[in-house]
Design goal:
Distance between the termini: 7 Å
Mean pLDDT: 92
Number of helices: 6
Structural class: alpha/beta
Order of helices and strands: EEEHEHEHHHH
Number of strands: 5
Strand content: 15-25%
Length: 166
């Protein structure tokens, strides 16, 4: 089963693609989609849409997991991130339909990976590295956060739903 995890943003969108089998969970790819701040917002959103569409076409994930919007005090940032999330969800819906899209709060992701919903960023990164048997923490942080979203889905939703894993 292939799961794509997304850490949404408008300057940087983190992505992580994992494959889960009965025996192991391994990384297929991770990284970021970056948009230049000098570009118009419409161009940035189009770049995000194209990047997400490309990843879905390339890896053909079975499930799509994204971190829910975390409210910041800066309203402009929240609005821009919300627009980027909409574009990401649109790309995923067009490519995968709606029944394989899942969203998780930061608290749910932290709880799934560490058992502690108040875990800090370093604890999450350590667990991503440990669970995926990586030699170092994935960089940038947005990619590690996206892998955390994918791992959260692999450890919670698939078990709860009784989905068969090959």
């Amino acid at each position: 089963m292939i799961i794509i995890g997304i850490d949404p943003g408008y300057a940087i969108v983190g992505f992580g693609i994992i494959e889960k089998t009965k025996r192991e969970t391994k990384v297929l790819d991770y990284g970021v989609i970056e948009t230049d701040k000098s570009l118009k917002m419409s161009v940035r959103l189009n770049k995000i849409y194209d990047g997400i569409s490309y990843l879905i076409d390339k890896y053909k994930p079975d499930h799509f997991a994204m971190e829910e919007l975390f409210y910041h005090t800066n309203q402009k940032t929240v609005i821009n991130v919300a627009m980027a999330r909409g574009v990401i969800l649109l790309a995923a819906t067009k490519k995968m339909g709606t029944d394989r899209l899942y969203e998780y709060t930061p608290l749910q992701i932290k709880q799934a990976l560490t058992g502690n919903g108040r875990a800090d960023k370093h604890q999450i990164q350590y667990m991503v590295k440990a669970i995926l048997n990586l030699t170092k923490v994935p960089k940038p942080d947005d990619a590690a956060d996206a892998l955390a979203a994918a791992l959260c889905h692999s450890q919670t939703n698939l078990v709860l739903s009784g989905t068969d894993i090959k």
